[in-house]
Design brief:
Elements: H1 2-32, E1 49-61, H2 65-68, E2 69-70, E3 72-82, E4 87-100, E5 104-118, E6 124-137, E7 142-157, E8 160-173, E9 176-190
Antiparallel strand pairs: 1-3, 1-9, 2-4, 3-4, 4-5, 5-6, 6-7, 7-8, 8-9
Length: 191
């Protein structure tokens, strides 16, 4: 009976030894084989790309023009070439409508181009911009004009940004100037 107890004790010790060795090896295998790293996230270029934007808002006449016209809709579409992370060139087409108690309304179309400077490289980016171009009224008369302003761009994804912008416009009309502002908000898509 003593031998029988010794055999059971020896078998149980041997079983414990085998189980301990097995679980120790299994634990080592988990520790020794780390998970593969996740695939790299593709990075978008920060320069030499295009984006297209669209904004809507209000056009507000200034000075004596304000006596004859009331604020109304403003809409702008543009194509922007980003030369560097903080500098781009934009070409734009703008539509401005001014209400008048005398003639109903007047439309003004803008085709211009100019630089845009981003002041930071963060996801929230203030910017200043300006340009020169042609302003065409309802009669087809083309006049030279300038615009200068700035705004704020907020990157919501790598390819989509929201923008808010203020622009001051000066259209040269004979001996006087037609001045107005636009305040607009919109979206920009990168491609």
């Amino acid at each position: 009976m003593k031998n029988h107890r010794l055999t059971i004790l020896t078998l149980s010790q041997l079983l414990i030894l085998i189980c301990g060795a097995y679980f120790s090896t299994a634990a080592q295998v988990v520790v020794d084989t780390p998970a593969p790293p996740p695939p790299p996230v593709p990075q978008l270029s920060t320069s030499h790309f295009f984006s297209v934007g669209g904004r809507v808002g209000v056009a507000i006449p200034h000075g004596e023009v304000n006596d004859f016209f009331d604020p109304n809709i403003a809409a702008t579409a543009d194509l922007e070439y980003h030369a560097t992370e903080q500098f781009s060139i934009a070409g734009l087409f703008g539509y401005r409508r001014f209400s008048s108690s005398f003639s109903g309304h007047e439309n003004l179309y803008q085709i211009s181009a100019g630089p845009k400077f981003y002041l930071t490289t963060d996801s929230t980016r203030p910017f200043v911009n300006g340009g020169a171009g042609a302003f065409v009224d309802d009669t087809g008369t083309v006049r030279f004009g300038l615009h200068l302003g700035g705004g704020l761009q907020f990157q919501v994804s790598p390819k989509v940004a929201l923008e808010g912008e203020y622009q001051f416009h000066n259209v040269f009309v004979g001996g006087a100037n037609f001045r107005f502002s636009t305040v607009q908000g919109g979206v920009r898509f990168r491609f």
